[in-house]
Write a sequence for this structure.
């Protein structure tokens, strides 16, 4: 039976690549998008819901699918207000997972970050860690929390700090070996391949770090 998938964050870098891949995947008949703005793609598989994602639960009747892919995330530069930042990076993924619980959606795959921990001294990592724990506590049938390192690729929005850090990472990447290998940059295409494979295959791993994502992505045909 063909499946329906929901993507949160399809207008972003990784979410946009995921949308393209699912549109070409014959296992999926419909891709529902919950976003603040429309995607620049026209395809009969796409069903768009242009909403305020902070009020996601108001659209519970439309939040019905076989799988949910959550690619939501902001940055300190884009969202300097910590309260709003928390509502986005914690609130949206957790609300989505709660809707999965209520509506009987078995599969929830969310992008977190390497270093996420609920007691981290870094606000970004602490927020991601709390988000992870809240989702795990829901005990959905199939949950995968992806913890990538710095995501490569070119974004439409300009992030100077991230751009400079990526240049530095390209220089030092050959030095990241052994236990440090997981800190190497990861292409968004690699994350997407891993997400799709995880959604369609059995994997007991709950949290999946960057280096393991690279290995899993190789299984996706």
């Amino acid at each position: 039976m063909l499946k329906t998938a929901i993507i949160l964050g399809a207008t972003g870098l990784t979410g946009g690549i995921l949308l393209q891949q699912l549109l070409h995947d014959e296992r999926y008949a419909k891709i529902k998008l919950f976003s603040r703005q429309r995607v620049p793609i026209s395809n009969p598989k796409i069903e768009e819901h242009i909403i305020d994602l902070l009020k996601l639960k108001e659209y519970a009747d439309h939040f019905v699918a076989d799988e949910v892919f959550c690619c939501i995330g902001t940055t300190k530069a884009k969202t300097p207000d910590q309260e709003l930042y928390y509502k986005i990076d914690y609130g949206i993924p957790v609300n989505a997972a709660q809707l999965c619980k209520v509506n009987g959606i078995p599969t929830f795959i969310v992008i977190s970050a390497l270093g996420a921990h609920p007691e981290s001294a870094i606000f970004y990592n602490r927020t991601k860690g709390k988000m992870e724990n809240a989702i795990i506590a829901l005990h959905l049938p199939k949950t995968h929390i992806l913890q990538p390192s710095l995501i490569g690729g070119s974004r439409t929005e300009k992030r100077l700090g991230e751009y400079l850090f990526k240049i530095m990472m390209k220089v030092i990447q050959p030095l990241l070996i052994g236990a440090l290998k997981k800190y190497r940059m990861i292409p968004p295409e690699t994350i997407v391949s891993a997400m799709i494979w995880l959604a369609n295959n059995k994997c007991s791993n709950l949290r999946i770090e960057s280096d393991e994502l690279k290995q899993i992505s190789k299984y996706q045909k």
